[in-house]
Amino acid sequence: MAWRQMISLNRASLQTLSNSLSGFARFSSKSNPYAVKVGIPEFLNGVGKGVETHVEKLESEIGDFQTLLVTRTFKLKKLGLPCRHRKLILKYAHKYRLGLWRPRAEAVKS
């Protein structure tokens, strides 16, 4: 009998704890200006670090953004991209596919 009471108390306390934390996780201190349609130029500009210099080459050879997301490193190497830029593109493409990263919209300067 005592075990049943302890288990039910633990379940009740865990349930209230999870309910209170779920509302807390929705708030963030950073704003998300994601109103931009993502294409190859927006993606590469979001990555930065010199990768945006390859926009014309990737648009002509690869075509659309969805193909870039599944492109392998050997194809990027064939296109003549340096190793550091290939690594950055593949890293951010993986993060984008998982939904962990998106290129930010350009901030409006006043």
Write a structural description:
- It comes from Escallonia herrerae.
- This is Small ribosomal subunit protein mS41 SAM domain-containing protein.
- It holds the Pfam family SAM_Ribosomal_mS41.
- InterPro entries: SAM_Ribosomal_mS41.
- By secondary structure, this protein is mainly α.
- Helices cover 59% and strands 0% of the residues.
- It has 6 helices and no strands.
- It is elongated, with a radius of gyration of 22 Å.
- The protein starts with a helix and ends in a 12-residue tail after the last helix.
- The mean pLDDT is 79.
How is this fold's topology laid out?
Blueprint: H1 2-24, H2 40-47, H3 55-61, H4 65-69, H5 73-78, H6 83-98
Descriptive terms for the model:
110 residues; mainly alpha; 6 helices; 0% strand
What structural class results from the helix and strand content? mainly alpha
Radius of gyration: 22 Å
Average pLDDT, rounded to a whole number, is 79
Characterize the largest beta sheet: strand count, sense, and whether it forms a barrel. none
Domain Small ribosomal subunit protein mS41 SAM: 40-99
Pfam families: SAM_Ribosomal_mS41
Protein name: Small ribosomal subunit protein mS41 SAM domain-containing protein
InterPro entries: SAM_Ribosomal_mS41 (IPR019083)
